[in-house]
Amino acid sequence: MRSLRLLASISHRPEKVLLAVFVLALAVQLAGQAGNSGTAPSSSAASTTQTPVPTLKVATRLVSLEVVVRDRQGRSVPGLTAKDFEVFEQVQPKKERRPQSISVFRAVNWAELKAASPKPAQLPPGVYSNLVNAQTSAVPPTVLLFDGINTDIESQLEVHQQMVKMLSSIPADVPVAVFLMGDRLRLLQGFTTDPKLLREAAAKTLVVGQTAPDQDPTDDPNSLSAKLEGTPNLPPGLLTALQNFEQKTFVLAVTVRTDKTLDALRGIARYLDGYPGRKNVLWISTSFPLMFWPSDQGFSGNSADLRDFQGDMQEVGSALMDAKIAIYPMDAGGVRTQSMFEASARIRQPSSGARMGQSIQREDTLRQGAQQVMSDLADQTGGRVCLNDNDLGDCVKKAVDDANSYYELAYYPDAGDFHGEYHTIIVKTAHSGVHLSYREGYYARPLDKGESKSAKGAQAADPRLQRAACEDPLTSTAILVMAKAIPPDEAGAAKYFLAIDPRMLTFTGPEAGTRELGISVAACTFDRTGQPLQYLQKNSVTKLNDQQFAVASHAITQTFQFAPKSGIHRVRLAVRDAMSGRIGSVDIPYQEAGHAVSAAAPVVPAPAKP
Q1: 167 with 348: CB under 8 angstroms?
Q2: According to DSSP H, which parts of 445-560 are helical?
Q3: Which of 25, 253, 360, 534 could form a disulfide with 121 if both were Cys (CB 3.0 to 4.6 A apart)?
Q4: Which residues contact 137 (CB under 8 A, 6 or more apart)?
Q5: Do 192 and 175 form a contact (C-beta atoms < 8 A)?
Q6: How far apart are CA 89 and CA 415, in angstroms?
């Protein structure tokens, strides 16, 4: 792969066509963002606020909030201005509450944007992009995420019984996508307003063979240790060793599905990042415990046995917040009683009343921990949790209503050292009788300057980029990317030209008259079944003087060439900004790219170098 090049260095080659298309599409996108910026602020508000202007990012921090304002009846409250809000930050563990100056304010009402939306840009044959044509809909997208690995089969059946009511709670003009979380995240239906397609997708959400995921093996009547209890003449220590093994297997199973759940949420964040405005993810699940101790069978019960996923959840929550995604967790189990007291339940017979109490306590602890995950994630992202409610249709309606009308506030924080400390956000309004819903804080991650100056080498693989390129079911949209296959420099190679939106990249501040940009470009190839075949990555760091930085406002370009393996059906090209971690990716059908050359076909000669 050649080093990073700027627009000024492009000569009259096929790549210039892509650049022209890119600039046109970018102009349309900017027009769409202007139209989607919401209702214009009143004259009194305009003097104290700033309208965001798309510019190149220079290593700075801007905290953005989507604030939903409801009255006592749960209806949206329109007509507020920046002067109606106050924003404060409180850095933990310090208790000082510092006021913040609102730099950006806009009222977003999707119902008023339909007429202002421009037509999406049309791409010529052979040019592929992850450009989000949000202008085709006047309402924000909604994702239904059915969680098959954290939801017991009984709760899944309950969801299916409510499916029609849930879908009918979504207005006809709201585009909905349906995902299923099983062994991997699967897209069952892309964004559509067709009720027939949504019903067909929802009918495929049942994960067959799922058992109660959070039942401690100590209480499982089907466990091998339960069946061996009371068996005479067992070898000494056999039952204890078996119980210990079952506990370790249980811990491993919870850890694996927790990792899969967090990976799925990361993938959804990467996919929705490029969509404008506030997005809803309706997570239908019984969740998983954020932390737990295995039972005392074979374990010491000390801190070394604690399984804690809080750090991973914080990182996922930050990714969701950065993508302006509000999570609406919905407990598919509804109102539940202790499993021991259900008429149809098979329980492991306790040997004493104390053991029965321990079993009830274990179930309560796991259930409360799982519900706490839901509540924390909803609070962290500005959504609402739906627990102990057997009417999921009402939960869906509330989530959709929240996304249709809200206020966007943004400010540059003036407190904290940005070394991972937690910043609590407090938003107040002088209007009485209203409820504000917004994300309640963020972890102040330091800007990763070390990554852009990484000494890992130009070929060092980035696991986050590799995951987005090879494992995500859909492309990432945080960085706008356009790509086209071009003639390779050597026989048998595959070569692609990429144009990257510089507004979504981060440049370091000027030092000694130069700015620095670090990006990674990768390619992942897939066969016809969707299995990845190979992964390749190239890292680059480029220094720009003032003149080059000005030219970079049009587009950043790259070429990527590699020797493909046989059996390729599709190629995904991905770009990651080293400073912010944002990712953009685009899929290109390999056959259509013209790389599948028969044995009798002549090899296209490499073009003359300019």
Answers
A1: no
A2: 449-452, 463-470, 546-551
A3: 25
A4: 173, 175, 191, 193
A5: yes
A6: 7
> Which residues have CB under 8 Å from 183's CB, separation 6+?
149, 260
- Residue written as token pair 């499916």: 163
Over the stretch 110-164, which tens digit does the pLDDT of each residue have?
666 555 555 556 777 888 988 876 444 556 678 989 888 888 777 777 777 777 7
Beta bridge partners of 105: 409
pLDDT tens digits along 443-458: 776 655 444 444 355 6
Helix intervals (H) in 273-352:
310-322
Going by C-beta distance under 8 Å and a sequence separation of 6 or more, which residues neighbour residue 449?
Answer: 59, 508, 579
Neighbours of 263 (CB within 10 A): 18
Separation of CA 191 from chain center = 16
Q: Is 453 left (phi over 0), alpha (psi -120 to 50) or beta?
A: alpha
Phi-psi label, residue 19: left if phi above 0, alpha if psi -120 to 50, beta otherwise:
alpha
Q: What is the pLDDT of residue 358?
A: 59
**Could you write out the three-class secondary structure of 394-436?**
HHHHHHHHHHHEEEEEEECCCCCCCCCCEEEEEEEECCCCCEE
Tell whether omega for the bond before 93 is within 30 degrees of 0, i.e. cis: yes
Q: Are strands 506-507 and 57-58 parallel, antiparallel or unpaired?
A: parallel
CB-count exposure of residue 266 (10 Å: 0-12, 13-18, 19+): buried
Please give the sequence-ordered ranges of beta strands (E in DSSP) within 332-414, or none if there are none.
405-411
Given strand 570-577, what is the order of strands in its sheet? 532-545, 514-526, 570-577, 583-589
